[in-house]
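Margin note: ligand = 2-acetamido-2-deoxy-beta-D-glucopyranose.
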Amino acid sequence: MRLSVVYGVVLSLILFCRSDAAETFSVDGKVLNLDESNFDSAISSFDHILVDFYAPWCGHCKRLSPELDAAAPVLAALKEPIVIAKVDADKHTRLAKKFEVDAYPTILLFNHGIPTEYRGPRKADLLVRYLKKFAASDVSVLESDSTVNKFVEEASTFFPVFIGFGLDSSVIEKLGKKYKKNAWFSVAKGFSEDLMVLYDFDKIPALVSLNPLYNERNTFYGPFEDEFLEDFVKQNLLPLVVPVSHDTLKLIKADGRKIVLTIVEDEGEDRSRELVKLLKAAASANRDLIFGYVGVKQLEEFAENFDIATKLPKMVVWDKSDDYLSVNGSESIEEEDQATQITKFLEGYREGRTIKKTFSGPSLMQFFHRSFDIRVLYVVVFVVAVLMLIQTLSKGGDEYHRVPNQDQVDHASSSVSEAESKEYRPGDKDD
Ligand SMILES: *[C@@H]1O[C@H](CO)[C@@H](O)[C@H](O)[C@H]1NC(C)=O
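Resulting structure:
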């Protein structure tokens, strides 16, 4: 009874605070319309707010809009609500410029006022699942088999999942905070032996990592100390052998380890898949290195930095700068007995029989920050426009009439001839 009174007080306090914020925004699960006048206060009013910068004429935006309408009430009802808002970027250009909106729709997620671009799915149900990650507690405490299963199911495939069985949440609190954007963290307090079988661990405490996207699972039995724990988490944020893409490159770059990169013609070919299997075996025995592969067909603009004129597949060690290492005598992987060649490559690398090479393409910074190029382009266009304006002004007003359209030419010439004839007549009379 007394508890329900406490709940009642807490609830009314929450509602009171809510209604305070609702002076400007009514949080009713509808998508907020923002403009210059209310944007800043909206961002500071909510811990998590997703803003869709749209243009009324853009087709992708029109398709996104009903999905956001559907997701908004679900996200508003979360324990840590996420508010959805939109800005007509075509109309409110100052806001669009401020957040460097150069394509529609641009979706920004503001967590405590800090924006990150949202690149997740755009269907309402998937969007909700994806966004929940950002509003969930750092470490979820799971009390039973069914909550564990529900947690794993709802985590979906976007992020790896870590479950500490028989582990105190304080043990992984720090990592949960640090890697919040990259993975789900939880501890399971009550679970049956069935779950031990399901997640394949035979004693506790155990930290199980699941990477549903790559169908991988790993178990860590300790020691549960900061450094070892973090190594385990970091290693399992990425799959054993990482397919290099724009998305995974960010994770690869954030990981301190060097990457053993295998460049193949086409990731989809059977022989590439066979090679990846062999690389997995090597990767699990060499966890101080990341293993990755990239297909020229899949990501040519990246792969071509590694001198792909030489025979493929080839292996290099890359420290994520504009340099990489080849192993003398182990550049390309021949068809026969590839496992031995991978071993020889790794031996050669460990023994320092390496040759340093430099990127043949544009620098990696350019690859990562292509939007930077666009900004440079804007500056160049602006400077050229200013120079043209200065030139125009310095040459005087008649410069403006240099390139008239045909109407203006006709009109101008007829008015000139009129003026001439008018001027001529009085002259005539004077004579
Ligand atoms: C590569 O190895 C060969 C034979 O072991 C050696 O003669 C050559 O100098 C090495 N090349 C480089 C660049 O280290």
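The two ends are 116 Å apart (CA to CA).
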